[in-house]
Amino acid sequence: MEEVALKLSKLGIQKRVISPGKGDLSTFPDGTKVVFHYRTSLCDGKLLDDSRMMAGCSKPMELILGKKFKLPVWETVVTTMREEEIAEFTCDTKHTIMYPLVSQSLRNISMGKDPMEWQRHCCGMAQIHSHHSLGHEDLDHLQATPQPLVFSLELLQVLPPGSFRLDTWAMTDEEKLQVVPQIHEEGNVLFKRGDIAAAAEKYHNAIACLKNMQMKERPGDDGWIRLDHMITPLLLNYCQCKLKLGQYYEVLDHCSSILFKYEDNVKAYYKRGKAHAAVWNEEQARADFARVVKLDPSLEPSVAKELRLMEERLKEKQREEKNRFKSLFSYSNTSSGSATATSG
């Protein structure tokens, strides 16, 4: 224990054990997944972040060791802890200069935003020295005046390499290519079970994984096209889920984006036609369904069924509107008659 404290001290880190953990200290090889809650404070006690109190999300932090996380000091300190241990680490400024960017990313995750957005715009150190606002007053101040920080960690779980599936953000491109077909199949199984929302999430995750890779390619190059051909069937499956969930305008957007690139994609026309019909765009629906039959005459019976359904819904809508206007007209006459009788 004293040896660990001495080692950390030489690095500019002071450790205080609040509650000892259990079992032996892990060897923490690269690829180990550590799950922990964290609290981050200034040295004067002012709280910056608490994973248990994050807006919209109280999930613990999950970190894969050896993946070059933007805050290396967390990897350093967590490898001195046992499972269920709670400890406090006071870290010199040289270890905390990246914390404003890391905190911004973690806060984005808790609010459902894209955690990688800041990384796409500029590299970490360049942004640290820029005047770009992080969108949080406390983080802007910390970015402008770097200082030591106190990290209170509770180590919940240590998972050795190979005992879990990596989150896609932590994967190499090769690992992503291997896992996407698995996620695709998981989505298919969920869809067949009728768990449409969960299936949509699987397809979305697989799409996001491939889109992240596609961003590294130049549009139109072989690599970009190859990835786009993998994205398209996933996006069509995602649209099928959205049709069943009644989110028709999202289907219109995604199918139109597919048809902008692949103008003969029958499935995109068919799903877009159904979405148009659902939102009363009769002319656009008929045009899409006509295109489906032209591209694949074998689908004519299916298209005919969709057209009949659309016509029935349109007639029902017209009847409802006619009755509504009739009721409104009747009410207007009644009100007018009452007013006349009163004045007489």
UniProtKB/TrEMBL annotation:
Keywords: Cytoplasm, Phosphoprotein, Repeat, TPR repeat. It is found in: Cytoplasm. Interacts with RET in the pituitary gland; this interaction prevents the formation of the AIP-survivin complex. GO terms for cellular component: cytoplasm. This is AH receptor-interacting protein. One of its GO terms (molecular function) is peptidyl-prolyl cis-trans isomerase activity. It comes from Paramormyrops kingsleyae. InterPro entries: AIP/AIPL1/TTC9, PPIase_AIP, PPIase_dom_sf, TPR-like_helical_dom_sf, TPR_rpt. Residues 20-156 form the AIP/AIPL N-terminal FKBP-type PPIase domain. TPR repeats lie at residues 266-299. Its main location: cytoplasm. The keyword Repeat applies.
